[in-house]
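FIELD: query
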Amino acid sequence: MAADDPVILGLVEAILDGDAPDWTSVESAATDSQRAVFTELQAIAAIGSAWRRGRIPSFHSPLHLASAVGSTWGQLRILEALGHGGFGTVYRAWDPQLDREVALKLLPAGDDAVSALEEGRLLAKVHHRNVVTIFGADRIGPYFGLGMELVHGETLEHVLVKEGLIDVPRVVALGRQLCEALAAVHRAGLVHRDVKAHNVMLEPSGRLVLMDFGAGRFLSKSSDQEFAGTPLYLAPEIFGGAAATAQSDLYSAGVLLYHLLTGRYPVEGRTLREVRDVHSRLEQRSSVRLQRPDLPRRLASAIDRALAIQPVDRFQTAESMAAALGAESSGRTRVPYAAALLGLATVTAVAVAYTTPGRQFARALSGPSFSSLGRAAISPETPTARRLSLPRGSVFGSGLSYDGRYFSFADRDSNLAVFDMSTGQTETLVRANGDQYAEFSIVAPDGKLVAYQWWTDRRTYEIRLVDRATKSVRTLLRDDDLDYPLPIDWAKDGSKILVWTRTTQRVGRIMLADVTSGKLQVVREINAGVPLGLSLSTDGRYVAYDLPLSEDNQTRAIHIVDTMGIDDRIPPTEKDANDRFPLWTPDGQRLFFISDRSGSADGWLVPVRDGEATAEPTLVVRNLGRVESLGLTWEGAFYYRLTVGAFDVNEITLDPATMLPLSKPRRVAKHFAASNIGPSYSPDGRQLAYISIRDGLGGRPTRTIVVHDFETGAERELNPPLDLGTAPARWSPEGRRLLVGASVIDVGTGAVVPVVNRGLDRDLTAFGPTRWASDGTSVLYEQERTGVVKHSLAGRPDEVVYAYGVDSSVGRIHRFEVSPDGQRLAFSAFLRDGNGSVLRVVTPGGAIELARRMSPEMITVQAWSSDGRFILFTTLRTGAPPPHELWRVPAWGGPPEHLTSIAGATQLNPMAFNPKGTALAYTTGTPLQELWMMEHFLPKPR
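FIELD: result
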């Protein structure tokens, strides 16, 4: 080796500086003589790193490549070392319980073990075909481990070295897959921080897989002191100590595409210090077309934008970067749709998150279960799952046909429509008419009829049938003594419909409606509780449903009832097991259901004969996540709604005079991190109430109200028998009650009183924004097609505070807040033409417009100042990630004043300001709901 070899000297300098070189990148471009030296330098760097951290690696530990083979970690037997780097070692391992190979990544469990374990469990919730599937995370002894999908393929760096520069169409396809992967990661509230060619695998099938989350961190947790990633791929701001963001990930993605097309990097240097110096001198980035003049302008423009020096000049979302790359392949720009969901939900409604435009309706990816490992060859018996992309606006009242082809839904205008998954076409069947509109619907087995719920001009619900061919409509169920009848399931021969409803006396009923005659048959009456799932057996003889064990114990058990109402049986259950969402399998001999009896939300199967279970349930698919079942097709494909993403409640200290932040964000919750939403301060500011999402594990309800006391640090939990949705818990003026959606909860006793009943079940709380009136004797709520209504708790007539239609230019209100004196109402709403949004205040003298923003910027009211002088609101570009810009405007009019940026805040819930104006609490991240389909997971019947 030459003593003045600049590469070797640069590595030595980096090691002495305490920087970790990217050995994989270095080795790929090294000569044979240099590689011999690299081995020695790696050992020196590892020892130095261990000394700096205060721990020495054991050369007999599983992390040492040679000695690991043949040892075990937990139940996994290590077979082979696949590779190693600065963040750990990856092994091929064998799971004897599942009889499969898996990939196991082990890292020393140092001071950040708790954070690493938390990250791993969050990553396990990221399900996307282009993101490596994380099956589990745990700490055993001195090591933290990730169990993950074993991907068979090559890294993009190896492909580049082997094949040379990648052609344009292939780079475009790879770039779009990479952006879709990053979009899934960012939706989960995470940043990758080490996107590079060595961390992206390519399977022979063309599937790209984003790997190695060892450097990943929460979007809200990256500190100024952390420095991770490969220098040549790092965004300029990272060298200045800025926290990693989605935009820094997209910069790295731009570097990767640049590298695949040119074989070089946009900023080059032999050492970390040189790369940092080049970035510090750059004022303007040169285009990739200087290296490749032959590149199409659209592709070059997309890469140049991703590589912009300032984060604000880059793509703000991975979806928008994917769309820009898609424009190159399609010849046209696809504009992603962005709209705020208004919080309307029913217990059976399906809210489907759509994230990528275009007509690729199903994206295959490895299953979200630990039993679906081993991607080398997928046989018909290998469980696989894929996320389905549906029409924009298909967010309410959705149903699926038995063949999985047709998807019925109420669109954004409450029209009844059907989406054909095989053609990508949407067909409108019944249009809303004034105050009459469609809600929940289900498709007949042959796809010819759709049964749907219809809100009539008589202010009652009916169940109607529409013929898809002729568009003819007839009423199947009309009974003013029945509240909110829901069509749930079709008989397999199409002759009857399973219906759930309640009488006006609040007695629940499971019913069968004859499609031809309309005759109704009561199968079972239920005095307490509401099923999450009901299913009619293949032969039409039995109904399976779940119910809470009691009003005080929301743990659910599954019941089977004969359609003649003769018997009611419960399949084998376990103490404290939360069994829910039963579905009959196509053969009619088994029940598939979701249960936490093994500690996570898994899929179970129990054999049934003549309405009785004949054996103990067996586990068939693991770790489905936050799942709600929708149905099984004729071929046994399982359709389900999956809630993904990390979210939490943060608080910052404010200067009460200027409203400017005085502290960094801090997490409020002491337990169940990354699962909390909807903060609200008590009138004295001493307590903060928020909603904690617990996934129904351990027999808990899926939503728990937590009351945090700032003085004592204590937390108290309320478990009302309600589906709390995403509505925040609002304190009453006297501080003894909480308003959650349409129900009032006594903070002391937990007692629940429904206060608004527009034909809605008491469990259906999140039907629109609700707020306390200032005197605590009334509540205000937004009612679709009416406006904001003041509802007296003492039985006085309702009063319309703001009526829709007064101003034809203003559309539906998406949020409102009441002034401290109760005399004024501030609201934000979309313009009816869809070109913007407005902030207005309603006074006894009329409405005053205070601010307006044109699309794609969106304005949202947040709160009144405690003295009533100002209204606080935020602005955000639709389709873009946070930060939100926080403003205040005089309540009687005047120019808005920009206060600060709130990084990480979400539109999911309003921000909360404590009464003294000294603190702000808000929800970070966004839980998204996706429609998924899993197949090849049901064992064949014996």
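FIELD: remark
The mean pLDDT is 77.
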